């Protein structure tokens, strides 16, 4: 659907579409028109104009989220366009803003906010080349260091050294860009562009390096911390992290798989867990917590009860929760505030159906996203699921991939899902009857794709028809065989793959050495 443009925006598009003329004329443009021209240039991917607009930016702040978001002149939100041409032009324009002297305008810029950029799966930009979070981290760090080198080697105007601009960014660090980012953070106080880390994600990084770089980011300003793939952080390391560093503004925390494992708990481990809970209680802004693939059986209350702020997002997928854990969640003050909940990997219908319904009932007034993948939900449980979901009238997203539901069960469920007014995204499993008889759940990776694809397409068409007949074209239904889209993983998958092969090789070598010693 085409979005209406004001006459001002149409005029701005016409102005920036002639790149050469627009760049020559910027000196005579009123300050308040710069944001309008920036959005028009971004839409048309006019890289050179974007560069010159940023290089001569006359305002105090430059907020990408606000500039590209819904505006009076053009309501379409462009903040999900991570166009490489546009973003590179922005960042190089920012570098040249510092170096540009004399400038047609007094340099007033104090804050650049890059955190409003959203990484999504489908890109609409013409160039089809994206610049993800990792690449933005890499480029900004590189430009800061280049700027420092240039300032040291060149006789710059004294005014240049008085420039100080806070650049707010979500950093993404892996082994491959670690050294560069560390150097940029170490020399931050000398650089006119000050990297201010608002969110930090780390993948494929040695623990020692993670501890070093996290201290350089100035954790007192950190709002989101994601320690995800191949960072071998265990409970004792987490305790050290929380004991040595304070995160007063932290709102969102993601911990890597196997951070906790209560199966091998000692009295010392119990004390450690209590201490971690107490440290988390001091993070008064914390409302999002992800601890997937840890073994937390019987310890959820110990970890979450000290929290003074209710959680809005909780991911405890594949955490081996028992009846007591689920009962705590259902009766805790968190339940009434949960907007996003992931209970994947738990046999809900067999272990705690009534407690699960109670939890849904308590969170129903606010719940927006529910994920129940690999939960052994079968056709006989569909009515129970409908009963639980009926009060969840604000639900926007429901993911239940990996459950042994038949085509018939899915049709029954989809007929109900049409009644949830705010639902826009559904991820459903390949129907059980599309797989060979005798398939066991959860399905292993080797068997995942061995289903009747033609039959699946036929069922998927029927499910979409159910949505269509209910006038619910707004609902996107899909079957992501290999998990939901993760922009960070997509961007660094080659590095992730290489790391996994290296780890596998090291494990094999250790195993071979052990065998040789035995023989």
Automatic annotation (TrEMBL):
Keywords, ordered alphabetically: Leucine-rich repeat, Repeat
Alphabetical list of InterPro entries matching this protein: LRR_dom_sf (IPR032675), LRRC14/PRAME (IPR050694)
One Gene Ontology cellular component annotation held by this UniProt entry: cytoplasm
Family: Belongs to the PRAME family. LRRC14 subfamily.
Record protein name field: Leucine-rich repeat-containing protein 14B
């Amino acid at each position: 659907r085409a979005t209406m443009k004001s006459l001002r925006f149409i005029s701005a598009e016409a102005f920036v579409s002639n790149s050469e003329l627009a760049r020559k004329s910027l000196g005579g443009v009123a300050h308040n028109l710069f944001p309008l021209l920036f959005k028009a240039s971004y839409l048309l991917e006019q890289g050179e104009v974007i560069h010159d607009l940023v290089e001569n930016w006359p305002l105090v702040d430059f907020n990408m989220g606000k500039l590209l978001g819904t505006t009076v002149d053009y309501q379409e939100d462009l903040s999900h366009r991570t166009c490489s041409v546009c973003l590179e032009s922005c960042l190089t324009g920012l570098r040249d803003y510092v170096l540009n002297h004399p400038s047609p305008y007094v340099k007033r810029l104090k804050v650049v906010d890059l955190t409003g950029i959203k990484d999504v799966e489908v890109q609409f930009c013409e160039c089809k080349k994206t610049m993800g979070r990792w690449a933005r981290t890499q480029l900004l760090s590189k430009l800061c260091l280049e700027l420092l080198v240039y300032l040291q080697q060149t006789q710059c105007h004294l005014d240049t050294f008085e420039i100080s601009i806070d650049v707010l960014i979500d950093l993404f660090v892996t082994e491959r860009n670690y050294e560069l980012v560390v150097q940029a953070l170490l020399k931050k106080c000398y650089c006119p562009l000050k990297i201010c880390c608002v969110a930090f994600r780390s993948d494929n990084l040695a623990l020692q390096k993670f501890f070093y770089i996290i201290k350089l980011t100035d954790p007192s300003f950190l709002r989101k911390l994601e320690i995800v793939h191949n960072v071998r952080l265990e409970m004792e390391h987490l305790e050290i992290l929380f004991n040595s560093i304070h995160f007063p503004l932290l709102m969102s925390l993601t911990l890597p798989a196997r951070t906790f494992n209560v199966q091998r708990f000692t009295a010392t481990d119990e004390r450690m867990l209590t201490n971690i809970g107490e440290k988390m209680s001091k993070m008064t802004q914390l409302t999002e917590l992800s601890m997937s693939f840890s073994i937390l059986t019987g310890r959820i209350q110990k970890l979450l009860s000290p929290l003074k702020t209710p959680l809005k997002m909780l991911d405890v997928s594949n955490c081996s929760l028992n009846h007591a854990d689920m009962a705590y969640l259902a009766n805790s003050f968190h339940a009434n505030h949960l907007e996003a909940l992931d209970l994947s990997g738990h046999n809900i219908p067999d272990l705690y159906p009534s407690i699960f319904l109670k939890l849904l009932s308590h969170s129903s007034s606010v719940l927006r996203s529910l994920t129940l993948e690999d939960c052994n939900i079968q056709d006989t449980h569909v009515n129970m699921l409908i009963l639980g979901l009926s009060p969840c009238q604000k639900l926007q997203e429901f993911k239940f991939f990996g459950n042994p539901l038949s085509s018939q069960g899915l049709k029954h469920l989809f007929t109900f899902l049409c009644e949830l007014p705010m639902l826009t995204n559904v991820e459903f499993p390949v129907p059980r009857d599309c797989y060979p008889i005798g398939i066991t759940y959860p399905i292993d990776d080797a068997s995942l794709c061995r289903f009747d694809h033609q039959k699946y397409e036929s069922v998927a068409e029927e499910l979409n028809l159910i949505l269509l007949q209910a006038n619910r074209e707004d609902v996107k239904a899909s079957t992501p065989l290999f998990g939901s889209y993760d922009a960070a993983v997509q961007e660094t998958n080659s590095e992730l793959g290489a790391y996994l092969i290296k780890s596998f090789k090291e494990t094999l070598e250790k195993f071979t050495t052990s065998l040789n010693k035995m023989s």
